[in-house]
Amino acid sequence: MDGSLELAPAKSIPAEVISLAKQFKAIPEFKAIKPKQRRYLLAYCATGSITGCGKHCGISWVNHYSWLQRSEAYKQAYEKARQMFGDYAEGDVFNRAFIGTEHSVTKIRGDSVITETYNRKSDILAIFALKGLRPEYRDGFNITTIGPAALAISYPSAPRATMPVSNQEIDVTPDKESNDR
User: Fold this and answer.
1) Long-range contacts from 115-119, C-beta under 8 angstroms, 24+ separation
2) Half-sphere exposure at residue 141, Cβ-oriented, CA atoms within 13 angstroms
3) What distances in angstroms separate CA 85 from CA 37, 49, 72, 133, 176, one per listed residue?
4) How many Cα atoms within 13 Å fall on the side-chain side of residue 86?
5) What's the rounded Cα separation, in Å, for the pair 153 and 145?
6) pLDDT > 90 fraction of the chain, expressed in percent and rounded
7) H/E stretch holding 139
8) Domain locations in the chain?
9) In whole angstroms, what is the distance from residue 123 CA to residue 55 CA?
10) Which of the residues 14, 83, 125, 145 could staple to 97 if both were Cys, CB 3.0 to 4.6 A apart?
11) What percent of the chain has pLDDT over 70?
C-alpha cells in the first residue's frame, strides 16, 4: 500500500470513521507523523484494537510498539487516536444504554407470522454511564490522611468515619475460641 489513508473494506469500520480519513491529516497531532503511521492510527480509531487495526490497514501491530518507543510525535498522535476512539465508543455506549438497539421478534400464531420490533436498552451500560457521570453512584470508598494520627475513611452513602492510627502493631491472629467453632 502507498502512504494514503485508504483502509481495506471491512464491515466493522463505521462509515463515519472512513469519512474521517479526509479530515485526518488536518488534526495537528497527525500532521507530524508519517503517512503509514496515520493510516495505522485511522484504523485504530475505527477498531479500538492494536492488533485488529493491522488487519484493516495492512500494517503489523509490531510496528506500533516500535513507533511508540522511537517517536514522541507518534506517541502524541496515538494518545489523540485513543481519545477519538473513546469518544466514538462513549457515544455508542450512551446510545445502547439510553436509546437502545432495535431487535426483531417473530411470532407464529396459527397460519400468521407476526414480526415486531422494539428497542432493547442495556441496564448494565446505563449503570456504568451513571457511575461515570455522578460520583454518588460510584462504588468503593476513599481513604485520605488528615494528619499523622488520623485516617479518614469515607463511603459515598455513609457518614464520614475517623479511625485513630498509631505506630503500634495490631495483632490480627484469630483467637483460639474462634478456631474451635
Assistant:
1) none
2) 12
3) 16, 10, 20, 19, 57
4) 6
5) 9
6) 12
7) none
8) 15-97, 138-167
9) 33
10) 125
11) 64
Sign, CA torsion 40/43/47/51: negative
Place of cell 439510553: 98
The one-letter code for the residue type at 133 is L
The amino acid occupying position 40 is Y
Q: Name the residue among 60, 48, 62, 50 with its Cα closest to residue 14.
A: 48
Q: Is 60 exceeded by the pLDDT of residue 145?
A: yes
pTM, 2 dp: 0.59
Lowest-pLDDT choice from 29-33, 81-85, 142-146: 142-146
Q: How many residues does the chain have?
A: 181
